[in-house]
Amino acid sequence: GAVVSQHPSRVICKSGTSVKIECRSLDFQATTMFWYRQFPKKSLMLMATSNEGSKATYEQGVEKDKFLINHASLTLSTLTVTSAHPEDSSFYICSAGRTSSGRGYEQYFGPGTRLTVT
Amino acid sequence: KQEVTQIPAALSVPEGENLVLNCSFTDSAIYNLQWFRQDPGKGLTSLLLIQSSQREQTSGRLNASLDKSSGRSTLYIAASQPGDSATYLCAVRGSGGSNYKLTFGKGTLLTVNP
Question: Is the pLDDT of residue A2 over 90?
């Protein structure tokens, strides 16, 4: 159990266009979802935390107008990179959290989306 | 601000060796600690989760220990195999449960040579 999927797995887009990435918790309901960005040989950087039905909380330095997050339901969150530029090229990973007996609160991670902006 | 450090940054061993990966964190007020595995171009797979009240967790050939007071955790891999080659990430969650975010180390890149 506790599977998180992301779509697409990789996307190439032209500079100036927008790209939407979907994150789904397949077999559980996630009250909170997280979006991370990972640069080569760097640790994961949390971009934002979203709760179902409310506005996302963005980390310092992350432009909320550029990285639009929508958490429409307990199983779906989307990240839209607006007016993408080459510097937005990166590996984006989503995560969904839940509390279970015996393990407390835990996050489950999706397989990631490789975004390349040309 | 919590900081997580992993040593070594990279490790190369021959198949069959036992090995230890190290993780240290600056703020001992943690909720739990997790070890993840990441294959190139892939997402994270959770290996072991240790609650703040626990000292260790075991899964197969993996054993993770936690010394919260000294801010250290180790991941022990027994009888390493080429399939164990991956990046291993340590992450700590601050105390307070879901209100606190995970802080990741930069990872240890493990290569197990046949």
Answer: no
Number of Cβ within a 10 Å radius of residue A44: 25
pLDDT in tens, B5-33: 999 999 999 999 999 999 999 999 899 99
Q: How many CB atoms lie within 10 A of CB B61?
A: 13
The β-bridge relationship of strands A90-100 and B56-59 is unpaired
CB atoms within 10 A of CB B90: 27
Hey, are the CB atoms on A105 and B32 less than 8 Å from each other?
A: yes
Those residues whose C-beta lies under 8 Å from the C-beta of residue A81, and which sit 6 or more positions away, are: A18, A19, A20, A21, A66, A67, A88, A115
pLDDT in tens, B51-110: 999 999 999 999 999 999 999 999 999 999 999 999 999 999 988 655 578 999 999 999
Task: Give me the residue from A91, A107, A114 closest to B102, CB to CB.
Answer: A107
The answer to whether the CB of A105 falls within 8 A of the CB of A99 is yes
Q: Which of residues 58-87 of B touch A (CB under 8 A)?
A: none
Residues paired with B16 in a beta bridge: none
Degrees, nearest 5: CA angle B28-B30-B34: 115
